[in-house]
Specification:
This protein is of the alpha/beta class. Helix content is 34%, strand content 16%. The chain has an 8-stranded mixed sheet, sandwiched between helices. α1 packs parallel to α2.
């Protein structure tokens, strides 16, 4: 872009990875449609339903029927958080991509603060939580997790686990994402940092979860997270596989044909 989004609006894709978020996804989408319309006339909103077992899928389809800018992409089964992010990035069609979770722990209205910081000199605007509104054990686990991954991977972010990000779609013309679990955020930010992309950080609010429960930070998954982090560390820090030639970027990988898209896209 030759000018900032505020002066010359770019196209914007917003997506929500959603799993059993029937209590929050409608309000998130409705607020996002309003916010995005104030930023640019060229936008789309995508709900990535990751095989939800509640009413999330039906609500997403109803939102798509109600708002012409909205569409829903449904995984036939639950594939985990990282897989939902990959689907969202591959489904986005606009110049800029914003994503946050469908559980309403972030306010999509604060996208405007990130938008203002997205200048031609910036590739990614990363949110960081002003104060984490979670139970004490999750706050402690989150701080330990952030400290460990920052040391292991040499990350310079204030908050690698803040899923409130506005980025250029062109990033995914150079990097690939492989992880299907929640550690995809570490994988993504490590590859973005090593790729020399320009990142700024903006404070955002974090709210109490009113529906559902975390699918990442819970005791049952801690061993799996530790194992996956060490495998990722070996791949990205020791072997530096992502910097080798011949890596197929995410933008060149097709969306899984098993996914159901609503409204059904026209045949070409």
């Amino acid at each position: 872009m030759s000018d900032s989004p505020a002066a010359k609006p770019a196209g914007l894709s917003v997506f929500f990875p959603a799993y059993n978020d029937s209590g929050t996804i409608a309000s998130m989408v409705i607020r996002t449609v309003k916010t995005a319309a104030e930023l640019t006339p060229d936008f789309e909103v995508i709900v990535v339903d990751d095989g939800s077992a509640d009413g999330t899928a039906d609500i997403a389809d109803e939102l798509a029927r109600t708002y012409p800018q909205v569409r829903a992409v449904h995984h036939p089964i639950n594939r985990d958080y990282g897989a939902a992010l990959q689907t969202g990035f591959r489904s986005a069609t606009k110049e800029l991509i914003f994503y946050t979770d469908g559980d309403a722990q972030y306010d999509p209205g604060e996208l405007a603060a990130l938008w203002r910081r997205m200048t031609p000199a910036i590739d990614l605007v990363n949110g960081y939580k002003i104060s984490r509104s979670d139970p004490l054990h999750r706050i402690i686990i989150g701080r330990v997790y952030h400290y460990i991954v920052s040391i292991l991977f040499g990350l310079k972010l204030r908050d690698v686990d803040c899923d409130f990000r506005l980025m250029r779609r062109s990033i995914f013309e150079r990097i690939n994402l492989e992880k299907t679990s929640g550690i995809i955020c570490v994988e993504m930010m490590k590859k973005i940092q090593d790729g020399g992309f320009r990142v700024v950080e903006v404070p955002v609010h974090h709210f109490h979860r009113t529906h559902g429960q975390s699918q990442f930070f819970n005791y049952r998954r801690l061993f799996r997270v530790a194992r996956d982090l060490m495998l990722l560390w070996y791949a990205l820090v020791v072997r530096r596989e992502h910097l080798r030639p011949g890596v197929t970027p995410l933008a060149q990988r097709a969306v899984d044909p098993a996914n159901r898209v609503y409204p059904t896209p026209p045949r070409v």
